[in-house]
Amino acid sequence: MESGKKIEMEDPSVEKIPQTSSRGSLVKQVLAALAVSLGSMVVGFSSAFTSPALESMNDEGSRLHITASEASWIGSLMPLSALFGGIIGGPLIENVGRRNTIIMTAIPFCVSFLLIYFAQHVSLIMAGRSLTGLGVGIASLALPVYLGETVEARVRGTLGLLPTTLGNMGILVSFTAGTYLDWTNLALLGACLPIPFFICTILIPETPTWFINRGNEKKAEASLQWLRGKKANVHEEMANILKAHKEAYHEQNDNVLKELFSKKYYLPFVISIGLMFFQQFSGINAVIFYTVTIFKDAGSTIDSNLCSIIVGAVNLASTLVATVLIDKLGRKILLYISNSLMTVTLLILGGFFYGKANGYDMEQYGWVPLPAFVIFIFGFAIGAGPIPWLMMGEILPSKVRGTAASIVTAFNWTCTFIVTKTFIDMSKAFGTHSAFLMFAIICAIGLIFTYKMVPETQGRTLEDIENNLMARRRSSRLSIKSLKKINSLAYLKPFPSML
Which residues form a coiled coil (predicted)? Predict the structure, then answer.
């Protein structure tokens, strides 16, 4: 394919859903997206809670004092428990519904923070963090599935990033509040956050896809009508969803797990797993762990709490940038930019720590880690952070979406736990520079993976995406013309001007 050439190709076998709704009718979709995304704010707050809380637990006036080993487990219990939350979340979203599953997560969030607030012993804090992780694991798979099934293709990228945006806002709230509140009052704030999320999510409908999967077409159409607006004509979109459902269930197989690992569905599943692997093994948690160290090495006199606030602010601002760009540039372009920025900045950080480890005078380069660190966070937040979650809800086929999302989410949290628990030991054994260089190599491989494997889903319906992925699997000997039809570049528009 010639570089720089715009290719406009349509697959005549793929039915496009017309954009029947007006700009005004997007209001209901925005409200639904905001409601469930409030749950992501709770997830973000929960994830960042230990950073300020662990520090205040050893303050002079604290009723609890913890050891370094206890602190390590308090920090890592959440991703470990989220792994199990991801496993049980799949059956939940299939059996009780996407929306009801999201609503149910408010309970473990509230209870977990109340356990921490009233804790008189470190074991209750660990129990609370484990319960938090359960809610995080369930929510992290249910949110993208809900949004993928309710939001129109033309705005699915923008609204699909709302959970990440509000999640990063939750991180910033945790870091900022943690500067002024001790761990008990911070936990009390955490127990209050799920309340508005719970109330708002009750007011929105279940997804049309779930109703259709349960054989209730009447409720599915009512849900779609609510989401698209009273004046929207949803009959054609409803017909396309029903058609996709009938095609997916044409070959009945009661063993969904066996079906998932069949050749029919392996491609979207492998793509989702790959995106999650490269997300976590980019070293994001390791780099954030070294926030204070990097600032100190840069000669900064900024205290650790303010460093954390800066991290939260960069995360939030970067995600807002991604929200603006994702439906203009597409998923792949942002992943290219993201992986490229992370590769370069990790190489710079690796080189800096190599110099320090080998006795070089790095004082004159003390300013380098700070901008490298900020650019790394920016790169992660515009692509590798939010897009794997967004695409999980887009590319996993409807028939196996619940089970597949469950396994993919569990895999993500497994990777998170591995990176969190092994980074310190890896750094001691091989040097911090070796860890950063390893992460840089993985990000570079992630760039190749994106180019070779990841489809562009910008502006395309879920049915369109599923049909094209199935076409890629079936076509073992595609001609160059056919390859161009499924190649992501065929669907990229010229770079639009910024609004």
Answer: none
